[in-house]
Every structure is written in structure tokens, then in C-alpha cells.
């Protein structure tokens, strides 16, 4: 209402019963079971451009009506040519059986031929139109099924994204100790007037088999057997946690996603 709002209209999805006024089912997510208490809720909204959008359960678009051309130039008083501004949706409503959409539009009257004063009050023209939307009722089962699948797919994707973030966070926490060790190696290399590049230093050790003085000092101070055991435990615990997150969350959501898409 009032420049873009909407009204909820729903029906009871009963197999033998006819359409009736249903609740908006706020706070209770719709499931995929089509019983007599399962309403299909359609959110109708309009904007300042004269476009009305219909969305099943408020998130899945099922219809769009463009009423931007509802007002055409006409002849006003004194045979003056009158033009109208872009229409704005003021109010929308949908009958309980989803068969008739009623839209109230407002457009500012603009007189192109007569000079208007700056302090003149603006004049508006209102227009009420109806649109036959009976196809929504005829295809209510298909729309409900697709919309509910769409909603569940969105939830599964969000869950998978959140699980990936938790996996990344867990691995970054486990690597924190190793990053600290390499930062200490950079400082040791700088004190020995060597390039502070741990990767290159370790590569030279791999090629020659002989550690430099800086690398030997780093091994003795930062990689004692006890510290290596702690690093191993941290990385091993992170791998186990990531494996659990994948098996119990990501993989399960992925299977559900493939099922919905199929």
C-alpha cells in the first residue's frame, strides 16, 4: 500500500475444496506437503514505475504486470493538450481465489500548453484497473511446488556457503601457529643478512641438504620436538573438524540440492 506496498492473498490448497481466504502463514515456513491446511501465499507489490509484481510466498516471482502506459495524453478544458506523468502504484489487491488483480494508479497532470505558476498545487489523476490472473489459480499446484523447491534450494545454498566459511575459519585457526613460525624465520633471515624468503631458504635446504646458519638457528629455537608435536596436533584436529563439517553438513546439503534440482 501507499507507493509500492502489497496485500497478501492466499487460498487453501485442498484437493476437493474450492478457493477460500487463508492466512498469510507468517512465521511458519511452508512445506512440500499439499494438505488442506497448506495455503499458497502470493505477495503483490507495485512500484513508482507502474509495474506490479506477484511473488509466491513472497520470494518466487510468478507474474509481472507493466501498467506504465495506463495514462495517455488527452484533451483537457478549453481544448488544451494535457499530458500525464509516469503512473505510480498506490494500492494493489488480489482476490482470495487469485483470479482478479485490482490496481490503483496515480499520475500527475501536466499541462503542456498553458503556463502554470510555480506555487500552483499539483493535480493528480487516479485510475483503477483490473487484471485477470485466473491462471494463478489454475496452476496453483505447479506454482506452489516450484516455489517451495526454489525456497529450499536457497536455504541449502546458504547452508553450504556458511559451512565453507566455517571450514575456512577452522583451517586458518590451525595454520596460525605455522604462520607464526614462518614470521620468526623471516626475522632470523633478516638478522643474518639473507633474503627474508622462507620458501627459497627451504628450497635451498632441499637441493643441497645443508641448512644455512639462519635456518639452523630457526630449527633449534622454533621447531623443537614439543613444538612440532603441538603443530601436528593442531593441524590434525583441524583436518578432522573439516572432514566432519563436510560429511555432516556440506555433503548432506549437496545431496539435497541435487535432489531438488532434479
Describe the fold and architecture.
The chain is α+β, with helices and mostly antiparallel strands and 262 residues long. Helices cover 44% and strands 23% of the residues. Strands 5, 6, 7, 8 and 9 form a five-stranded antiparallel β-sheet that branches. Strands 1-2-3-4 form a four-stranded antiparallel β-sheet. Strand 3 and strand 4 form a beta hairpin. Helix 2 packs antiparallel against helix 5. The radius of gyration is 33 Å and the shape is elongated. The two termini are 38 Å apart.
Question: What is the N-to-C order of secondary-structure elements (H for helix, E for strand)?
Answer: EEEEEEEEEHHHHH
Strand content: 15-25%
- Please describe the biggest sheet, giving its number of strands, its sense, and whether it closes into a barrel: 5 strands, antiparallel
Number of strands: 9
Q: Which stretches are low in confidence, meaning pLDDT under 50 for 5 or more residues running?
A: 1-37
Oligomer: single chain
User: Which value, in Å, is the CA radius of gyration?
Assistant: 33 Å
Amino acid at each position: 500500500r501507499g507507493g509500492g506496498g502489497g496485500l497478501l492473498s492466499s487460498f487453501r490448497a485442498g484437493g476437493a475444496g474450492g478457493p477460500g481466504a487463508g492466512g498469510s502463514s507468517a512465521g511458519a515456513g511452508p512445506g512440500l506437503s499439499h494438505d488442506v491446511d497448506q495455503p499458497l501465499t502470493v505477495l503483490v507489490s507495485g512500484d513508482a514505475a507502474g509495474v506490479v509484481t506477484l511473488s509466491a510466498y513472497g520470494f518466487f516471482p510468478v507474474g509481472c504486470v507493466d501498467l506504465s502506459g495506463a495514462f495517455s495524453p488527452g484533451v483537457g478544458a478549453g481544448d488544451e493538450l494535457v499530458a500525464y506523468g509516469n503512473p505510480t502504484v498506490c494500492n494493489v489487491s488480489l482476490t482470495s481465489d487469485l483470479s482478479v488483480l485490482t490496481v490503483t494508479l496515480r499520475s500527475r497532470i501536466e499541462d503542456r500548453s498553458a503556463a502554470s505558476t510555480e506555487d500552483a498545487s499539483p493535480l493528480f489523476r487516479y485510475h483503477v484497473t483490473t487484471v485477470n490472473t485466473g491462471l494463478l489459480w489454475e496452476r496453483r499446484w505447479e506454482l506452489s511446488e516450484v516455489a517451495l523447491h526454489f525456497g529450499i534450494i536457497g536455504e541449502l545454498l546458504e547452508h553450504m556457503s556458511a559451512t565453507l566459511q566455517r571450514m575456512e575459519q577452522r583451517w586458518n585457526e590451525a595454520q596460525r601457529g605455522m604462520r607464526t613460525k614462518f614470521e620468526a624465520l623471516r626475522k632470523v633471515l633478516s638478522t643474518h643478512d639473507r633474503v627474508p624468503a622462507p620458501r627459497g631458504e627451504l628450497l635451498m635446504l632441499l637441493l643441497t641438504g645443508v641448512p644455512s646458519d639462519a635456518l639452523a638457528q630457526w630449527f633449534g629455537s622454533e621447531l623443537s620436538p614439543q613444538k612440532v608435536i603441538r603443530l601436528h596436533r593442531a593441524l590434525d584436529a583441524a583436518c578432522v573438524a573439516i572432514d566432519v563439517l563436510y560429511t555432516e553438513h556440506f555433503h548432506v546439503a549437496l545431496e539435497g540440492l541435487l535432489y531438488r534440482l532434479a
